[in-house]
Amino acid sequence: MTAPDAATVQSLRNVLDAYIEAYGGGESLSAIRAIAGSILSVQARAKAISLKGLEIEAWVDAIVTDFELGHLAEKRVDKAAHAIALQVKSWSEKLELKTSATLDAYIQTYTPDLNTTKPPQIPTTVATILPIVADTAISSDEAKRIIHLISRQFDWHSAVDRVVDAKWIFLAGKVRKALQNRDIEATVQDVVQAYVSKFKPVLVEMGEGLAEQALTALLNSQTELDLDIDLDPESQRLVIQQVSFKMRLIEASPAPSKTALEIAQQIRSAVTRHREKQGLDNISLLPPVTQVEGDTASSSIGGDISIGIEIHPGSESQNKPS
């Protein structure tokens, strides 16, 4: 994992100073972390920095560690930092708007009559929408902020009555497809967590690449597991996207199942075989990992999604319209 150097950290803190000076938001550590995450998202989107896997979380830690909010008035923030802070504010607001508009479109399209249709869990739906509408990586604190904000402000009547553009209806269709595959997503997530629990990969490895390998291993193990999974390419892409995003929201992990651990071992073996075949003994396709003794070691990133609001229902099938 590439950690930010001291100069980069200071530059990012300058933007954080400028943001709080101009727009506030420094009332709590979680709020400061959310702003720091948004700064990183904007910088990554602009290709000013490169973040892989869950590196964004470590970078947020680096920015907020020893951050002195109380001394903000004593600091002189330059114009460049204020310009980036404005971009961060705009990006964050647009992400909220896109998420909210897609939620309205989903409600209108797939729950037209609440008298005959079980209403969806709003936090679950918002958490599913976010990776679909986002244009770059999002930190866990920023994701949680948006999930809480939109869930708290959501109003059924205005959602049903509001006019929505066709582009939001199109995205709502992707959300629907993602929610229909929630059971498969949960299984892939179990495999990913088992891999993390057993092999303790570094943050850079825990991204879409790992989620994709977990899904591939699961599809290849259908016969042994007596599964019947039929996913079109778009559905596969959505499952990978959802799993890699929701890894950021994970808080605590139960011991992985034996089956999940076995599939995790298949993933590790496949990576090892490929390295040997390509003569990559000293060049890892993924960053090095350290195996942990015992199959029930707790995960370094956790398990079931928990953000303070329930966002992980047992099955989306209950939410299908009549």
Structural notes for this entry:
By secondary structure, the chain is mainly alpha-helical. Helices cover 60% and strands 0% of the residues. It is built from 13 helices and no strands. The protein has helices at 6-23, 29-45, 55-64, 79-110, 122-133, 140-153, 156-161, 166-180, 182-199, 208-220, 222-225, 233-246, 258-277. The protein is flat, with a radius of gyration of 21 Å. The termini are far apart. Residues 280-322 have low confidence and may be disordered.
Please identify the structural class as seen in this structure. mainly alpha
Strand content: under 5%
Task: Write down the overall mean pLDDT.
Answer: 80
Oligomer: single chain
Q: Compute the number of strand runs.
A: 0
**Which stretches of 5+ consecutive residues score pLDDT under 50?**
280-322
SS summary, helix count? 13
How is the main sheet built? none
First-residue to last-residue Cα separation: 48 Å
Helix content: 55-70%
Rg calculated over all Cα atoms: 21 Å
> Which term fits the overall shape?
flat
Could you spell the SSE succession in H and E letters?
A: HHHHHHHHHHHHH
